[in-house]
């Protein structure tokens, strides 16, 4: 029973634009009965997988002790303020990234197996095959609950065919999400394209015409939903009115940043061609994509996402942190201390961008907690030591409380060779998608020990 007819996830509409709004307590049913109604009033859980390539400097990554009293190692120091919301997991293995008789190609196998935990067929042709990824299994089970089943974003524009790694198709090196065992889900790297996907009403047949009109008059998407927003404010309490204003201001600010990035991208860049609309500044690109992931979760447009910071085997250089050598070249460090120090600087930079995303999630109030509280966010790589292409004792972090289903704040050490797939099963169960098997899984991890 309810006295309200409007969804707690209100949508503002106007001329081809649809902007979903965040969780608003004012729009919850005033009268409800039973456990089912109580559960319906809770914010939904979200699941995200973030990937970094080439492994890490494990000497500066792995805490010395297990339990809650561990000391953050050098690379993870930038996550000090999130220590109570983080699980550091050691001992997990991605066995299906190993050759198993197929020779070279560890980078291609690492990314393609990370969420599928299955062995990729070694081919540079069209007969690719690996498995269905954990994110897409969740998306298939929850399809219809949100506007988009999942959101795939990244930074590098990768090819979908050809030979990219020792006889492995480029599809393996550039895709983390797999809808079927032979159908990867390409990630979107253009911030403008992601923005329009999130905020334009694709159900209206006049969308293309309206988009042209918006661009012609150089208006914000917010200009087209102002009347709807004004009507909604009259139904909200003071706290939710402020929440809506803060959210819409964030959308406006994001629009402006994308526009600035596009203007900068139009400047000719010698020797480094970039797709139109993609920022030439790597850090700004990462942060724009992080902001849109937060907005997508905040507005319940989707509850599942993958975010690839750089494709596996990436040889990107990082001159802005005084690392001018390519990342992949450095990863084959041969235990050279100078190279290991530069790898650590790259790892720490990626962690700083992760911290930016976590702070954004934590800043969004949702129910009695924060958006981060209702997330399960996995950050890691399918390689531990890039020099040896190791796939055991992977660098894996998990953030958030999964809507109260996770107990963070600890370093947990599992037996070596524990399948990474066991972690995926554990998180999927908490997400509401219980599965008996995923890839080479052997059961669920005990994350409560």
Order of helices and strands: EEHEEHHEEEHEEHHHHHEHHEEEEEH
Secondary structural class = alpha/beta
CATH class group of the largest domain: Alpha Beta
Over all CA atoms, what is the radius of gyration? 22 Å
CATH fold-level assignment of the largest domain = Alkaline Phosphatase, subunit A
Spatially, the strands of the biggest sheet line up as: 5-10-3-13-14-4-15
Report the average pLDDT across residues.
85
The main sheet comes to: 7 strands, mixed
Amino- and carboxy-terminal Cα gap = 41 Å
Global shape: globular
Overview of the molecule:
The chain is of the alpha/beta class. The chain has helices at 34-40, 106-114, 134-142, 170-174, 191-199, 207-217, 226-233, 238-265, 282-298, 327-331, 337-363, 420-431, and strands at 11-14, 17-20, 46-51, 86-93, 151-154, 163-165, 168-169, 178-180, 183-184, 304-308, 365-366, 369-370, 375-380, 396-399, 410-419. The strands form 5 sheets. The chain has a 7-stranded mixed sheet with strand order 5-10-3-13-14-4-15, with helices on both faces. Strands 1-2 form a two-stranded antiparallel sheet. The chain has a two-stranded antiparallel sheet with strand order 6-7. The longest helix is centred in the middle third of the chain and has 28 residues, at 238-265. The protein starts with 10 loop residues before the first strand and ends in an 18-residue tail after the last helix. Residues 1-8, 202-206 and 264-276 have low confidence and may be disordered.
């Amino acid at each position: 029973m309810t006295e309200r007819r409007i969804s707690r996830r209100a949508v503002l509409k106007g001329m081809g634009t649809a902007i979903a709004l965040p969780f608003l307590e004012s729009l919850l049913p005033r009268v409800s009965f039973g456990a089912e109604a109580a559960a319906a009033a809770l914010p939904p859980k979200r699941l995200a997988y973030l990937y970094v390539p080439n492994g890490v400097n494990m000497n500066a990554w792995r805490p010395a002790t297990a339990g809650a009293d561990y000391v953050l190692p050098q690379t993870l120091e930038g996550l000090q303020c999130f220590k109570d919301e983080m699980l550091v997991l050691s001992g997990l293995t991605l066995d299906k990234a190993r050759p198993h008789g197929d020779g070279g190609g560890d980078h291609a196998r690492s990314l393609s197996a990370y969420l599928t935990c299955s062995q990729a067929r070694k081919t540079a042709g069209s007969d690719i095959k690996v498995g269905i990824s954990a994110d897409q299994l969740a998306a298939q089970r929850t399809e219809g609950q949100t506007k988009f089943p999942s959101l795939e974003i990244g930074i590098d524009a990768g090819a979908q065919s050809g030979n990219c790694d020792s006889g492995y198709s480029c599809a393996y090196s550039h895709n983390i999400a797999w809808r079927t065992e032979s159908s990867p889900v390409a990630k979107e790297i253009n911030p403008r394209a992601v923005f329009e996907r999130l905020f334009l009403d694709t159900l209206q047949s006049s969308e293309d015409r309206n988009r042209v009109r918006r661009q012609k008059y150089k208006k914000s998407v917010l200009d087209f939903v102002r009347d709807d927003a004004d009507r909604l404010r009259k139904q909200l309490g003071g706290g939710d009115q402020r929440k809506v204003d803060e959210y819409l201001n964030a959308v406006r600010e994001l629009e402006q940043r994308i526009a600035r990035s596009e203007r900068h991208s139009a400047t000719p860049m010698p020797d480094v061609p970039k797709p139109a609309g993609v920022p030439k500044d790597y850090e700004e690109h990462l942060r724009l994509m992080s902001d849109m992931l937060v907005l997508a979760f905040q507005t319940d447009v989707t509850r599942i996402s993958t975010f690839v910071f750089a494709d596996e085997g990436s040889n990107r250089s990082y001159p802005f942190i005084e690392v001018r050598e390519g990342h992949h070249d450095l990863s084959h460090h041969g235990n050279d201390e100078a190279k290991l120090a530069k790898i650590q600087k790259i790892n720490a930079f990626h962690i700083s961008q992760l911290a930016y995303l976590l702070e954004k999630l934590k800043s969004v109030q949702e129910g009695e907690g924060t958006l981060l509280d209702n997330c399960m966010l996995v950050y890691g790589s399918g390689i531990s030591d890039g020099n040896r292409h190791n796939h055991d004792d992977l660098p894996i972090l998990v953030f958030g409380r999964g809507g109260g289903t996770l107990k963070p704040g600890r370093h947990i050490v599992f037996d070596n060779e524990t399948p990474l797939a066991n972690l995926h099963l554990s998180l999927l169960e908490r997400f509401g998608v219980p599965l008996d098997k995923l890839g080479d899984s052997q059961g669920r991890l005990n994350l409560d020990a």
